[in-house]
């Protein structure tokens, strides 16, 4: 017998969708993931203190927030399965969902909430200082006390990198924008913003050789791509803005995506290019990428699934 709803993903979007689907008294299963496309619970599982999620006046550790969301979803009746989805079949109804263990499930509606993973520099020192001064989200972490009135760095050269650098100027004493080329990839208006901001210094033609520190990050060793010269800068924080990869490989092109692989949803909705398939959270949001916006879109997806089921899918 087909479930009314299957939710794929266990970050803020997926768990919120589970909570709302349970409250609508719809039979449903939530696949948490296991080893592909990031860890169960999403990117917040590797985030330190979150200070911008409503309801936690002192901030909340990312793992604690996701644990509480998970427990809430279970309490209201969401069935969680810790398994990866290997394939979905959207050319038939009910939809088929096949796990990495070879088990097959069916659903009248699907909610895709598999998120995105930040692209990271392939350095051992990056792994060492991840969460100890290195982050992939300035909006999430830039206001933390450890970064205030300290020199900071952003690695990247696109619009996102400039946005991150500009945001950090509100907190850091200085922001280095490290780019491997001699010209930013960002749009003209963003280039001008970076080049004219009094607190941003662009380090051209530089690649990161290593992150330095003790228990926490204290500096970055850079190499000039033209001269080969080695330069060390002192920073308390480094923010990687080299892009994100949405977790959509298992869809195998069955939903419309943009050029970067993000699922396209109809404006103001979570509806995708396939009827009764909805997308929520970072898998369809390349701009905001916040826990609270992901949770909001998970709510939207569950409500839209409920309304669509009232008119019948298929």
Q: What CATH architecture of the largest domain do you see?
A: 3-Layer(bba) Sandwich
Q: Beta-strand percentage? A: 25-35%
Corresponding CATH superfamily of the largest domain: FAD/NAD(P)-binding domain
**3D shape:** elongated
Number of helices: 7
| Terminal CA distance | 15 Å
Radius of gyration: 21 Å
Mean of the pLDDT scores? 94
According to DSSP, the number of beta strands is 19
Let me know the largest β-sheet.
Answer: 7 strands, mixed
Unreliable stretches covering 5 or more consecutive residues: none
CATH class of the largest domain: Alpha Beta
Strand/helix succession: EHEEEHEEEEEHEHEHEHEEEEEEEH
Q: How many separate structural domains?
A: 2
**What structural category characterises the helix and strand content?**
alpha/beta
CATH names the topology of the largest domain as FAD/NAD(P)-binding domain
What is the helix fraction of residues, given as a range?
Answer: 10-25%
Q: Would you mind describing this structure in some detail?
A:
It contains 7 helices and 19 strands. The chain is α/β, with parallel strands linked by helices and 314 residues long. It has 2 domains: 3-117 and 244-310, FAD/NAD(P)-binding domain (3-Layer(bba) Sandwich), CATH 3.50.50.60; 120-240, FAD/NAD(P)-binding domain (3-Layer(bba) Sandwich), CATH 3.50.50. The strands form 5 sheets. Strands 1, 2, 5, 6, 7, 8 and 19 form a 7-stranded mixed beta sheet that branches. Strand 7 and strand 8 form a beta hairpin. The longest helix is centred in the C-terminal third of the chain and has 20 residues, at 291-310. The chain is elongated, with a radius of gyration of 21 Å. It starts with a strand and ends with a helix.
């Amino acid at each position: 017998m087909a479930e009314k709803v299957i939710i794929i993903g266990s970050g803020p979007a997926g768990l919120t969708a589970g909570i709302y689907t349970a409250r609508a008294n719809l039979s449903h299963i939530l696949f948490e993931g296991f080893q592909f496309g990031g860890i169960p619970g999403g990117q917040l599982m590797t985030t330190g203190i979150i200070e911008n999620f409503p309801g936690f006046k002192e901030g909340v550790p990312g793992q604690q927030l996701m644990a509480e969301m998970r427990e809430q979803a279970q309490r209201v009746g969401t069935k969680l399965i810790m398994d990866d989805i290997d394939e979905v079949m959207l050319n038939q109804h009910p939809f088929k969902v096949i796990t990495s263990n070879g088990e097959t499930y069916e659903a009248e509606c699907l909610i895709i909430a598999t998120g995105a993973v930040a692209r990271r520099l392939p350095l051992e020192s990056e792994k060492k200082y991840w969460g100890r001064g290195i982050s992939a989200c300035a909006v999430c972490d830039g206001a933390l006390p450890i970064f205030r009135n300290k020199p900071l760095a952003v690695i990247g050269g696109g619009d996102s990198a400039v946005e991150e650098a500009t945001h950090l100027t509100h907190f850091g004493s200085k922001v280095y924008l490290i780019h491997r080329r001699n010209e930013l990839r960002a749009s003209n208006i963003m280039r001008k913003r970076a080049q004219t901001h009094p607190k941003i210094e662009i380090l051209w033609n530089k690649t990161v050789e290593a992150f330095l520190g003790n228990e926490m990050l204290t500096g970055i060793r850079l190499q000039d791509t033209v001269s080969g010269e080695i330069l060390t800068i002192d920073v308390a924080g480094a923010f990687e803005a080299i892009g994100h990869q949405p977790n959509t490989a298992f869809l195998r092109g069955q939903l419309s995506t943009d050029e970067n692989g993000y699922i396209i949803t109809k404006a103001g909705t979570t509806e995708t290019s396939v009827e009764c398939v909805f997308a929520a959270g970072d898998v369809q949001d390349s701009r905001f990428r916040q826990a609270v916006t992901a949770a909001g879109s998970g709510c939207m997806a569950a409500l839209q699934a409920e309304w669509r089921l009232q008119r019948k899918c298929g």
